[in-house]
């Protein structure tokens, strides 16, 4: 396992990391989560990601129960604030929700501080100076060591850094975008100035494009698959054309390359993300330990991705 | 119930809110207050306003007793500091009184923090930089999430924002002025630059002009009415011409419109305040639950206030 | 008793105040001190001054024992840091001594915070930025509400304010100089720009010039008098010419005026200090309650000091 | 014992001080350390230096056990953060390691704060602004009173001071370099602008060049000597030519001067360091109390180092 710096900053996280989205509190209870996290740590994963929104706080609670068995300095724990409930002040990036959300997340996690805290989405209804002052409060009071953003636009990140400079606030060091073979625009184009000017790192999610990049939807939506169980997600993907013929054709082509180099298609998709030097860590979501073990093999597959193979993939994706 | 942003900021408060001035600790004890606050919350009110000065701290104590039964993130609690006692340092906006006043208010409220804390009046005897540094202390130490002012002039607000910028202090986000059909100058003219330049919101008090706008003083001062019981208030209103013939004539004219649209005159007066988009919340003072229920119907009346009706009211008030 | 603002700032202190120098821990034990402080408070004194150096910390301890019986917001308590012991880091205005000194003073005083904390002397061995950052720490951590200096030169005060502006630190609001009829230069000339530019107030000590202005040394040094008991003090005064013939002649002249207006000479000397509008409070040191009562009559004497009388005194002192 | 200011700053430390490198937790257990520290303190040493890295935290623990018997204000305690373990975030100057390292050091030391905290080495992998913000956090939260660096280059120190100015952070006041007769370049040339522009002081280590300057390696490496026990150190010195003929010749020449002035060669080497006015303190590492007593005599030897003797030494070292 390689440990990468988060952008230009001093924090180091494992190139593969374990997320809790859709799994902790759903497929995984405390015991399963413990098994997965211990296996992950044994294999060099030191970064564990959660959010107040996941399973209505249950994901944080489960992760907190397991984290007690780790040495605090060995791990990097992140959470994200945005959706904390249904009340008028339970969501968004107001000072009220950011502070109350953080205090409550730390209670569920049973931690004094998280390493990273993310603004889980941009909030156009709150002025950036309010958000920046609140995140600065969180850092300067020791509730988190670093802060980041998730799914903010390049312009929104520019505005955040400008406000930090003007208000003498500590700036964000990391973005958490969706990134995979089928969604590359933001990470590979829009964020370019952000890496260079501000040295931000990336922790990326959805490396398998909700499973599409495993090839399992190549012949329609199987019963009991995630897309069958979450019709909202299916609709969302359809609207973005990700279940269309053109996409499936590309996925099949990529599948052939996977076969050639002796890898599962999912492993190839993960390894491909790791080849991007601006990516600090690719967050895995796993339903069980076997899936985790399978995904970890992406590290070996990464070694097989020569420039020539990468070039072929690039052509397919164009 | 509509939830409005406080000016441009991320905090959201119900357009109608419940104050404790003249009522908590007077007409309302802990049990009555609890009944009123629960009814208010059930109807969507999330903002509860008090002050260290109200009933010599009793209003805060009563509100604190009731607030224990609410989820902290569901509510927005404000208090105000200025009149804390009779000693030389018990009033005004010195650092000593602002900090001691806040510490003591929080004890009476039994809270770790309030959402909003107001400077209850301007204090020309204290330099603005002292006040601004003290409010910044209160925010940065987590005793309050936001701060505001009450009954400050436009120039005083300008000075406060200028000092905040120069001293790198967190600026006020809200003013709490008196505002009703009979007192419009400040809110509709003097503060205009403040909304635009600083995005401040308003929480307004005295929507019924001490009862004048209910029409109950149209034929003199009834026994047992508030003006009969508080001669000081009566004198104050008389001096400002608010009990004069010209005013009563206007109130009667407005009364006819209320009748036309099938509303109580008090409901029309409240609804009229709500039509001003710069108003974030209109603070109600109620003596009992029935009055609260009656006032809440202003929300329905608001829907009936067409442009044409508003224009007619405007003409009457001129 | 008049309450004066400390310079332009919002803090208000009684024009006469009670110090603990040379008395608390020497002539006054806890019981005597309690009696004196209660009498002082009853007569309107709200400001009580001490220092870590007085009686090796005993003065602070005694004051702390008595302060428990006062309401915290009723009083203004000050201490001063500079001489805390004999070790290399027990004195001066280094960050180490300022912070350790303050922590230890608060323990002896049994208080969470003092209202005012003074740098008891300038420290040419410590750079002003170190001192300013340390005092800012003390204020921003709630250990004191305001800070001041004692016996700093006009240039040193200029340097302090300049450093505060450059380092975004909270500035000092008060100086504590020696001031009486025989020592006027600094307060009446050197500090003039300081009042105007920075609005600093003054709490002055030694209003009776170690007793010279009571007239009791007009015919030599009586046995058991303070100057007989403290030969160091006597030498110090002699070196500054304050026990010379010229001085004694002036004191006798002033004595005649006192007699004319029906005042004790000590009361006239105190009242004369109070006539200076830049003086916020004159600190009294008393050995017993009777002396305190006698000194408090200076307030009445102040009313008798017409412009004409002040002019005559001015001529004598020239 | 002379107490020197740390550069231009107000903190005062004894010119000789006691370190814990290679000794605490190795040759010295709690009892031996206590004996040494008490002897040191009795002789005027007030500065005790340790680091998280020394004996894997054991040096801090031992020092903490002994420090309980000292008055906190009498002593100046320092630790250093850089090497805290083997995990990806256990070393270097990231915010994560600096804060976690400091929290853990304070626990081992059983202290609320250290006087000085050093960045034990430069960390080119972490941007200076991250380190500067983290050290500022440590100071502003009262975990340390001052901060410094160890073995940073002149350029790195320039960059640190520039970042502090730009980010309004409290700057470092002290460097801890290696300094002795055989390694003079950095202290005597590279750092010159640092003393003048920033008033930094120096606490220097390795005054005897790992024992070479005692003369004990003049005839090869004796069995059981430090160089025999630590082959890594031996190799390191050999690579830098410090065990070569040319060096040994110089050491022998210096030895003759020591003999002339009636001093042990080690005492002369220590006294020579003390003659540099930019040195605030020379840190001694001792294996037992006798060695400490012997080293303390360097203070007397210092008095014998006339300009003429210093000139002769200078010629030899050229």
TrEMBL record, chains A, B, C, D:
It holds the Pfam family Aldo_ket_red. Residues 15-317 form the NADP-dependent oxidoreductase domain. GO terms for molecular function: oxidoreductase activity. Gene3D superfamilies: NADP-dependent oxidoreductase domain. Keywords: NADP, Oxidoreductase. It comes from the Bacteria. InterPro entries: K_chnl_volt-dep_bsu_KCNAB-rel (IPR005399), NAD(P)_OxRdtase_dom_sf (IPR036812), NADP_OxRdtase_dom (IPR023210). PANTHER family: HYPERKINETIC, ISOFORM M. Belongs to the shaker potassium channel beta subunit family. This is Alcohol dehydrogenase.
């Amino acid at each position: 396992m390689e440990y990468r710096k988060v952008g230009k900053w001093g924090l180091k996280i494992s190139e593969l990391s374990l997320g809790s989205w859709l799994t902790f509190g759903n497929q995984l209870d405390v015991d399963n989560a413990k098994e997965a996290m211990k296996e992950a740590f044994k294999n060099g994963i030191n970064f564990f990601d959660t959010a107040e929104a996941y399973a209505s706080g249950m994901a944080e609670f489960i992760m907190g129960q397991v984290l007690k068995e780790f040495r605090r300095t060995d791990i990097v724990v992140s959470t994200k604030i945005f959706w904390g409930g249904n009340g008028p002040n339970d969501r968004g990036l107001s000072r009220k929700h950011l502070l109350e959300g953080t205090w409550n997340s730390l209670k569920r996690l049973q931690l004094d501080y998280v390493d990273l805290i993310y603004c889980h989405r941009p909030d156009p209804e709150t002025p950036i100076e309010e958000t920046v002052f609140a995140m600065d409060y969180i850092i300067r009071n020791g509730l988190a060591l670093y802060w980041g953003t998730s799914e903010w636009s390049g312009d929104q990140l520019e505005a955040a850094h400008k406000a930090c400079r003007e208000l003498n606030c500590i700036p964000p060091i990391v973005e958490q975008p969706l990134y995979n073979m089928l969604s590359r625009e933001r990470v590979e184009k829009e964020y370019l100035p952000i890496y260079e000017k501000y040295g931000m790192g990336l922790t990326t999610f959805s490396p398998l494009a909700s499973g599409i990049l495993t090839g399992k939807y190549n012949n329609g939506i199987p019963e009991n698959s995630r897309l069958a169980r979450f019709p909202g997600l299916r609709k969302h993907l359809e609207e973005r054309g990700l279940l269309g013929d053109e996409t499936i054709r590309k996925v099949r082509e990529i599948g052939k390359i996977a076969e050639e180099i002796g890898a599962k298609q999912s492993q190839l998709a993960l390894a491909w993300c790791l080849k991007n030097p601006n990516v600090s860590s690719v967050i895995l979501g796993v339903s069980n330990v076997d899936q985790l073990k399978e995904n970890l093999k992406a590290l070996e597959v990464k070694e097989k991705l020569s420039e020539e193979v990468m070039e072929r993939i690039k052509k397919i994706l164009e």
